[in-house]
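Changelog excerpt

This revision adds worked examples to the README so contributors can see how folded entries look when concatenated. The first example is reproduced verbatim below.
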Amino acid sequence: MNILEKIVETKKVEVTRQKKVIPVAQLKKYPGYQRKCNSLKAALLKHNSTGIIAEFKQKSPSKGEINFGVKVEEVTKGYADAGASGLSVLTDYEYFGGTLANLAKAREVNPEIPILRKDFMIDTYQIVEAKAFGADVILLIAACLEKELAETLAQKAKSLGMEVLMEVHNAEELTKLNDFVDIVGVNNRNLKTFKVDVETSVELAKFITERFVKISESGLADTETIHYLRKHGFKGFLIGETFMKTENPGEACRKLIAELSFRSRVLGREIC
């Protein structure tokens, strides 16, 4: 059993338990369930968008503890103030140290910016849960979902006014895309070896149609890489560890965006 399979098995147990703790009927009474979602797709396509989707992630299976010395409210507000186009908040606790409480806190201090719930979605219950706790976008990881289930989950999210980001790692997983997906994220990290290669994004971009907004994930640490990926049609860049491993993630985000803007001016073109 690889790490992804192990995570999914753990998630099945968690979801079964959570359904009993907070039933769907109760989730629908949460204030977040009634709010209108912010569009990440629109934010990424906006004129002069930075394209940065800044992530709050405190640990991971591959890196271990990253940063438990910061507060989600301060970090995500720092990201938003720095000019990030969107936020990503991990809600998986067992493997990533995330919580739904972190999602709710990020939403409270950042009412206008799109927020992605980063987790391993395997049940429509989690979609309702995401909406109730303030998410605008949900993540579907193609590697751990059958095509039919991926479509069911995506359709449920769209019915609640949310957007769908489907993450892929190879060309085979692109066959799981469906009409309810808004954004395709190419994860440059090999799930079997954990090796990161940005060329994964470049290669898969050739097979992703223009109807989907393309974003790149993992291994993004400098403006040169971001500009390189923009040339291949990428509009979004999900960055977590690069920011989170610093003492002040919001400031690290601000510096990267400032460098990105400067580099764009030097090249004689606008930021997007």
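The second example, added in the same revision:
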Amino acid sequence: MATDIQISKRKEFLPVTEELETYLDEFGRHYSLPASYQDLLGFTESYPLDDKNGNPTHWASVLYPRSVQEYLYPRLTSIYSLLRTGDLQAVPHLFVERVDYCAFGNSRPFRVRVVNQYNDNYDHFYVKTADASRVYGLELEHLLSPNRINYLAQRSTLVEEHIAGIPGDVFIRDHLDRVDVNKVRIAKEFVKFSERCFLRLLGDMRSYNYVIDITPDFEDVQYRVRAIDFDQQSYEGRRNIYLPQFFKENNPVVWLCGKLLNLPTMNQYQDEERSLIARRYLSEHQRLSALIQIMKNNPREPADKVAQLAQELGEFHHTNAFDNCDSMGAVVERNLEVTLARHLV
């Protein structure tokens, strides 16, 4: 079983550079937003928010003075329209029902609940402090994973769509032991998810940082594990940070993998995932190269963490290919090249 991995302190925010802004503009991510993260900080009251079963969450609903609310809420519905349709013109029958705030995560996000007044259907989106490493994480997820990511950025503000699914910690607590859960498929998907995280060096995938997306199939159900937190994209120096199986919160799923999957089967699933990532790597190579070059041009991560990760990955892969890496961008690039080498020929 995994031992508890501690991340020593809150990650420092890395500034979004002009070069990264140009990249975001080129690929349709950069917009002039009518409200910023700073605008949402103007709340005057908050109260703890429980889930539908009465369990406490890390979220608190926030309240704004009426004058701020009258200014802010129409702008938030405009941002939602821009995120969903590419048009800033707010749909008249949509309104903001609630704004929640989470002081727990690195990005300290706001979650905005938008409701259709005709049928009470609702959706959420998130407003966060922009951080270059998080942008890198979102882009790498979009380019290399099977999941498409929809987000907008402007200066110090990130707007992200809601990623649907059952939070990993809730799934482990309430669903994993149910008789109708296909545990072999859960184990398979966790192995593939772990491989995706390690290949592109997405860290801190504790159970509350991913969701389980469940899709009914003609005879059974299919599962997909999806990351929802990208703050720890290639920032920490320890290799195990990028392997979800080393976090104690994931122990029940790790135990399931060990019980239901033998080593040849795990290797098969890892190889399948590498093959799929290699195809995406080749098809998105130009955009991916541009992103990694920006990462390499702006090495803001602590140098000691870069050196540690390069050394540990070199030892893990039994190669000196990481010896000259002087930025996390170079480390990510080398890890992709080394791990996918057989599939890129």
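Reviewer comment on example two: The first strand starts at residue 45 and ends at 50. The mean pLDDT is 93.
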